[in-house]
């Protein structure tokens, strides 16, 4: 990570790594950490500093993080400590693990539509003033650049605007954005400018449409894409939801934790609009390949009960223990698929009444085989009201490629062993609470998915070291002798 042939010797990477761990342990900013290194006796002792020693400026912490990210080493320290815990026997390689996710709020203010477009223009104007002054001068002749200065870009307009004026303001800034894009169209070879141009184009494409007269207007919320850009300041942040009522803007962090020793074995950041279980398989396979960890079971909530994930992890030697997704309102009162006998070899499906049909349709994209039972048979069937509530009066069943895994899970989930396994899951909430309440994981310190990932790794590392120290201290406690048995 460092140049060997020129420049002065760097500040010790080991010292900066330890300082970064302590920074996340105490939930301190860079400046607060600099001050702690100067005046906090506990921090000085932990870092091995002299009482009058000032080890580094606060900017060195930012430089260190930048080097980690540029060299793909943001998870290096976490992996080294985890490897040590495994080698010391504190983590068993086949130990049962649990998984859950928490949301991380992005370090951005949610802009209005006018402000969002203005910020897109502002980000383009910055490199133009430095490297393309002639283009900047041409743009200045057509639009008022004072409105896109650093002081004004976050304001819609002075005072409060009524609905009509707000709509007109959006028309004005959209027209300005189109003029800017027209002038920068011919500029080549500037990667930074190119990325920011693409960003502004995306803002306009996702949020702006035109009425019958060709005047720009904001798209209806339902017509906007799901993966919509939230802010040009943090292009990776997304609108997300933890439930129907709990919505947020930012990221999610998935953690896997051992059940017995309670160490975090992996933490995976992702954009806020992704499903909780979307990187579950990746998290387990990564720890298997890097550290040889192969949990016998992985316990999670309903978000981790996906059939494809079950099949993929089963191939890796890990059984997923999770509730299956609740059926929707339209199908919850009808016979489940488990009551139908599926002959995979001959591609036949038999209903509870004994009627057998062949595959009717094959969805190549979703890889689902659809079976339509004949109306003539369903119409006279005495079980019809219990089997289907379809308007066309017949039962239709879709069989996916993971039907076998889902049916096996359905059977297992009715056993006492499943109930015992699920009791192990809830303790992971305490680990998430510890990360959020004491180590700053509720809000992102930095902007961008990679930087948020770095924050996740160091916060999880601080928690693992705390757990490690606690286990070591428990070994030092004197054992209380058992009271002697007295004969009566």
From TrEMBL:
Transmembrane segments: none annotated. It comes from the Bacteria. Residues 214-225 have a biased composition (Basic and acidic residues). Residues 211-242 are annotated as: Disordered. Residues 350-467 form the Transposase DDE domain. It holds the Pfam family DDE_Tnp_1_6. Residues 1-67 form the Transposase InsH N-terminal domain. NCBIfam families: transpos_IS1182. This is Transposase.
């Amino acid at each position: 990570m460092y140049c060997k042939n020129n420049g002065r010797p760097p500040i010790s990477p080991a010292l900066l790594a330890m300082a970064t761990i302590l920074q996340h342990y105490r939930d301190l900013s860079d400046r607060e950490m600099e001050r702690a290194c100067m005046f906090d006796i506990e921090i000085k002792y932990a870092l091995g500093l002299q009482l009058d020693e000032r080890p580094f400026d606060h900017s060195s912490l930012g430089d260190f993080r930048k080097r980690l990210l540029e060299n793909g080493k943001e998870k290096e320290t976490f992996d080294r400590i985890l490897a040590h815990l495994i080698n010391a026997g504190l983590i068993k390689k086949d130990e049962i693990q649990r998984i859950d996710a928490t949301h991380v709020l992005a370090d951005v203010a949610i802009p209005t539509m006018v402000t969002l477009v203005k910020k897109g223009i502002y980000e383009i104007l910055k490199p133009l003033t430095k490297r393309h002054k002639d283009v900047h001068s041409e743009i200045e002749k057509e639009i008022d650049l004072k409105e896109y200065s650093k002081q004004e870009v976050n304001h819609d307009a002075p005072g409060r605007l009524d609905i009509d004026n707000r709509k007109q303001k959006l028309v004005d800034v959209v027209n300005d954005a189109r003029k800017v894009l027209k002038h920068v169209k011919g500029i080549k070879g500037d990667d930074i400018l190119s990325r920011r141009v693409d960003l502004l184009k995306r803002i306009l494409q996702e949020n702006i449409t035109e009425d019958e007269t060709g005047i720009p207007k904001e798209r209806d919320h339902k017509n906007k894409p799901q993966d919509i850009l939230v802010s040009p300041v943090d292009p990776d942040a997304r609108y997300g939801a933890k439930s129907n009522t709990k919505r947020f803007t930012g990221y999610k962090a998935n953690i896997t934790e051992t059940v017995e020793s309670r160490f975090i074995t992996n933490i995976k950041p992702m954009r806020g609009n992704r499903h909780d279980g979307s990187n579950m398989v990746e998290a387990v396979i990564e720890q298997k390949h890097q550290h040889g960890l192969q949990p016998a079971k992985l316990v999670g909530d309903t978000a981790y009960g996906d059939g494809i994930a079950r099949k993929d992890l089963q191939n890796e030697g890990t059984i997923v223990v999770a509730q299956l997704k609740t059926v929707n309102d339209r199908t919850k009162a009808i016979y489940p698929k488990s009551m139908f006998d599926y002959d995979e070899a001959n591609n036949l499906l038999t209903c509870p009444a004994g009627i057998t049909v062949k595959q009717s349709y094959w969805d190549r994209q979703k890889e689902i085989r659809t079976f339509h039972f004949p109306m003539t048979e369903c119409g006279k069937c005495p079980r019809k009201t219990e089997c289907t509530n379809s308007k066309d009066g017949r039962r239709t069943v879709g069989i996916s490629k993971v039907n076998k895994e889902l049916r096996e899970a359905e059977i297992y989930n009715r056993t006492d062993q499943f109930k015992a396994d699920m009791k192990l899951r809830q303790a992971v909430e305490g680990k998430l609470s510890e990360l959020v309440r004491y180590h700053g994981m509720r809000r992102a310190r930095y902007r961008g998915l990679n930087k948020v990932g770095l924050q996740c790794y160091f916060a999880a590392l601080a928690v693992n070291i705390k757990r490690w120290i606690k286990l070591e201290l428990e070994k030092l406690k004197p054992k209380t002798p058992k009271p002697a048995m007295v004969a009566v």
